[in-house]
């Protein structure tokens, strides 16, 4: 169990500590995230991914330079300027023709942009998660933007990718790679984890 004081200490910038704590305590045990090592690792990773549990929908307001840096093949320098700071158009191009999405003109990229604590992305993942959560495809969009849905989507990804075992073994870098695909934000993730260790041992 996570206390409200523990959540507040870890994420002082979050203004909804009670509601988040209640939702975490309701959802995490269903996915076996019920030991101190698992909870600490989950909070550190989810806290980083969601900017301290404050961002549940992907921010796609990229500059031209950031587009080329993030998606060099989709937004080469000669194209990026046409899309800069246009989130809907960016999503539709960035996520076109993959993850179950249709072409750029379909609007699937924007419709299925990252949602939830871990930024669930793409039509295929939306459909898979809807089935796992016992929701219809049409219901899953709104659910992912609730606290419970945001948490559950990350729990679902966490369990399906063997993250409990990595948390048990305290293999935090391997866990980060499993979630991120690399080590982006490792310094912040590690700082959150080390803070969580102190908070949960207090």
Automatic annotation (TrEMBL):
InterPro entries: Cell_Wall_Dynamics_Protein, Lysozyme-like_dom_sf. This is Chitinase.
């Amino acid at each position: 169990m996570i206390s409200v004081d523990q959540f507040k200490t870890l994420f002082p910038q979050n203004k909804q500590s009670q509601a988040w704590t209640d939702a975490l305590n309701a959802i995490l045990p269903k996915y076996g995230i019920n030991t101190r090592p698992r909870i600490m690792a989950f909070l550190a990773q989810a806290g980083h991914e969601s900017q301290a549990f404050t961002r549940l929908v992907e921010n796609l307001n990229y500059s031209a330079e950031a587009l080329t840096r993030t998606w060099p093949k989709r937004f080469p320098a000669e194209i990026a300027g046409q899309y800069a700071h246009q989130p809907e158009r960016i999503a539709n191009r960035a996520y076109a023709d993959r993850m179950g999405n249709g072409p750029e003109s379909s609007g699937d990229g924007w419709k299925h942009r990252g949602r939830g604590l871990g930024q669930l992305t793409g039509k295929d993942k939306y459909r898979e998660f809807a089935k796992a959560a016992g929701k219809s495809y049409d219901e899953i969009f709104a659910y992912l933007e609730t606290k419970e849905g945001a948490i559950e989507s990350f729990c679902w990804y966490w369990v399906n990718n063997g993250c409990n075992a990595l948390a048990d073994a305290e293999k935090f870098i391997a866990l980060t790679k499993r979630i991120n695909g690399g080590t982006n934000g490792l310094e912040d993730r590690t700082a959150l984890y080390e803070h969580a260790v102190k908070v949960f041992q207090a």
